[in-house]
Amino acid sequence: MTVTEETDGSRYLVRSVSRAAEVLEALAAATPGHGLSVTDVARACGLSKSAAFATLHTLCQHGLAADDGEGMNRRYRLGMALARLGVRAQEQLSLRDIARPVLAALTRQTGLSSRLAVPEGEHAVVIDQVSNGERIQIELRMGTRELPHCTGLGKALLAEMSAPQIRELIDRVGLPRRTDHTIVDLDSLLAHLDDVRQAGYALDDEEDAEGVFCIGSALRDHTGACSGAISVTGLKLGLPSWRYQELGRQVRQAAEEISARLGYAGPQLTS
Fold first, then answer.
1. Residue-wise burial string across 46-82, b where 16 or more C-beta atoms lie within 10 A, e elsewhere
2. Contact 203/234 with Cβ under 8 angstroms?
3. Cβ atoms within 10 A of the Cβ of 163, count?
4. Angle, alpha carbons 37-38-40 (nearest 5°)
5. Degrees (nearest 5) of the Cα angle 159, 160, 165?
6. d(CA 159, CA 30)
7. Cα(173)–Cα(204) distance, integer angstroms
8. How many CA atoms lie within 13 A of 169 on its CB side?
């Protein structure tokens, strides 16, 4: 065994457990309503038929896989024990605990304070934050209710909604002007949110407070639903436009990492 193998943790991998995990992934990728044969599983996982059968049989014994049919017509699918384990996994999840190390890394990477918010009614409510430790601090408080139309967190969440849902929400909260840069026209806001969806992040460029910018990106859970948003906030101070794009990519990538930890397996933007 090489030094690299010893230091990357591979020496702790149990081959049979890894094989079982690969088989479960193959079953999960099957077309809904159509199970896989032993041959299908063996081909997908690069196993012999005997190894595939032994793994499937063991998984069935624990309820992690199930089979239907007999002989050559036997097909395998995921077992319902996984549903129970999935529920328990969700019960044990804490968005704050999952996001905190990613937020800390984002703050180290960007040098900016980062925050985590969840949707509550018409607003984004901040539930965690990591300070950049600078002597001059922008006033950021836990529990702050961010407006949906003029903040990085709020716009990131708003962009996850459909146009009818956005119109209904804005009918309730309005588009109050916070600065000269605030978007106060609904059609302009809808067009702006299209750009947010395309980029994967939302920019508040002095729209909520003069001299302050905020860049936010939405989080998704295992169902693909929006579960919150993260952001970085800083003083504008003549920041060049290319820096916004760079920060936007960094925030988006951090949001993708948190979403993956929440179980989201959808497409990711990489550009």
1. ebeeebbbebbeebeeeebbbbeeeeeeeebbbbeeb
2. no
3. 11
4. 65
5. 85
6. 32
7. 18
8. 23
Q: Which pair of tokens denotes residue 250?
A: 């960094």
Q: Tell me the average pLDDT of the chain.
A: 88
pLDDT tens digits, 71-126: 888 999 999 998 888 777 666 668 899 999 999 999 999 999 999 999 988 899 99
12 secondary structure, DSSP code: G
Q: Give the amino acid at 92.
A: Q
Q: Quick check: helix, strand or coil at residue 116?
A: strand
Q: 220 in helix, strand or coil?
A: strand
Residue 235 in tokens: 């003083």
- Helix spans in the chain (H): 3-7, 15-28, 38-45, 49-61, 81-92, 95-110, 152-158, 163-173, 186-199, 241-261
* pTM flag (> 0.85): no
For residues 38 and 55, the answer to whether their CB atoms sit within 8 Å is no
For 99, the token pair is: 């996001």
Tokens 């716009």 sit at which residue?
155
